[in-house]
Write a structure and sequence with these properties.
The chain is an alpha+beta fold. The protein has one domain: Transcriptional regulator MraZ domain (Chemotaxis protein chec). It is built from six helices and five strands; from the N terminus they run H-E-E-H-H-E-H-E-E-H-H. The protein has a five-stranded antiparallel beta sheet with strand order 3-1-2-5-4. Strand 1 and strand 2 form a beta hairpin. Helix 2 packs antiparallel against helix 3. The chain starts with a helix and ends with a helix.
Length: about 130
Amino acid sequence: MPSEFQDHLEALGVTRVFITTLDRRMARIYSPAVWKVNEELFRNAGANSGAAARVAFRARVYGGESDIDKSGRVLVPAKLREELNLEKQPVWLEAHNDAINVMNKPVFDARMQEADAHAASDVDVLSSVGLK
């Protein structure tokens, strides 16, 4: 894990994380506090209870806890590594919405292609609401 991510988690006192997938495309690394918020949302999803049950099921099937070692490494659950093709190849990390997204090259490339396709309009939209 990059040092800036590790430093941020250390500052929060986080030494253990929950690693899972919500969409079977990317892994997500959560602090225990953030994952508890998600679990609460799953339990109290109201009209969205079907979606919550499905996402929670997927997260439990592929997820697991991992300690952060002194070098900032975490062990991604074997089933998750296999499902997302994260073994023996580089991965890309992105901090987003209180989690760290982990993706393989095809997923990274697809996301970059989508971001590039909408770059001009996205910047215009966000500039209109205050992007500096």
